[in-house]
């Protein structure tokens, strides 16, 4: 299940080299990069690990870890980390298939599937959250869903979609804009962590309001009649 405890990137945070620029050459060998933001009293370092997804060729895995230290000090404190994927809709078909790879890998429902696309995946679910969210945003041909607004559909015509899977931050840094920029649409599915079932819905509502303050909008509303409902939020950066 996707777990979130923070915001996406604040548009007022200084921009470093775009992560999309770092992925011009898709390589199976992991690439590691570091970016530093220097404030008045503190220095925040973001270490980014980019790697190809061996099982899903249209996806690139991105892990960012955040640390902070005082000016003039070597010791740093860990603030949290972000796990995400960039989904490329233009990857050529795999051998023996007439489908674009991203449609084949991200939009195909297994025969006999008995799960629910509107709820977060369990470990035994044949479809994971990443794929469910893409299915909620697109039709089976890969076009943006007609249930979305005109602006949202236009954003999803981009060649790449960035999906934030998990964000974990120290409580005092939630909402400070930690993260990094990606060109194009960014989507996520807010879900509270470490809460009882009876507190889940209220926790999700609070996270939705929190993400709205960072510029995200609700693209797919959760069905609170379901257990562990999926909400999809998005924005363009």
User: Numbering strands along the chain, what is their spatial order in the largest sheet?
Assistant: 1-2-3-4-5-6-8-7
Residues in helices, as a percent range: 10-25%
**End-to-end span in angstroms?**
25 Å
Quote the average pLDDT. 81
- Give the CA-based shape: globular
Largest sheet features: 8 strands, mixed
Give the percentage of residues in beta strands: 25-35%
Quaternary organization: single chain
Q: What's the alpha carbon Rg, rounded to whole Å? A: 18 Å
Q: What are the segments in which pLDDT stays under 50 over at least 5 consecutive residues?
A: 1-26
Question: What can you see in these coordinates?
Answer:
This protein has 237 residues and is α+β, with helices and mostly antiparallel strands. It has a domain at 19-91 and 151-236. It is 17% helix and 28% strand. It contains five helices and eight strands, in the order αββββαααββαββ. The chain has helices at 19-22, 101-106, 129-137, 150-155, 197-212; strands at residues 31-38, 42-52, 59-70, 77-88, 160-169, 185-188, 217-220, 232-236. Strand 3 and strand 4 (77-88) form a beta hairpin. The protein is globular, with a radius of gyration of 18 Å. The model is unreliable at 1-26 (pLDDT under 50).
């Amino acid at each position: 299940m996707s777990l979130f405890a923070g915001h996406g990137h604040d548009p007022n945070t200084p921009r470093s080299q775009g992560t999309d620029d770092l992925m011009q050459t898709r390589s199976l060998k992991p690439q590691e990069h570091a970016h530093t933001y220097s404030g008045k009293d503190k220095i925040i370092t973001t270490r980014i690990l980019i790697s190809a997804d061996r099982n899903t060729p249209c996806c690139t895995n991105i892990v960012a870890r955040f640390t902070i230290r005082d000016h003039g000090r070597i010791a740093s404190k860990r603030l949290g980390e972000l796990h995400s994927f960039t989904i490329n809709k233009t990857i050529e078909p795999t051998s023996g298939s007439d489908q674009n790879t991203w449609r084949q890998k991200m939009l195909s429902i297994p025969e006999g599937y008995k799960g629910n696309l509107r709820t977060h995946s369990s470990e035994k679910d044949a479809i994971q959250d990443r794929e469910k969210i893409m299915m909620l945003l697109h039709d089976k041909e890969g076009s943006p869903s007609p249930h979305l607004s005109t602006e949202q559909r236009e954003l999803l015509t981009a060649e790449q979609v960035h999906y934030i899977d998990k964000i974990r931050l120290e409580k005092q840094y939630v909402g400070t804009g930690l993260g990094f920029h990606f060109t194009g649409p960014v989507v996520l599915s807010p879900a509270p962590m470490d809460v009882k079932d009876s507190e889940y819905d209220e926790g999700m509502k609070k996270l939705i309001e929190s993400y709205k303050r960072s510029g995200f909008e609700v693209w797919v509303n959760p069905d609170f009649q379901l257990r562990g409902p999926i909400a999809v939020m998005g924005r363009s950066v």
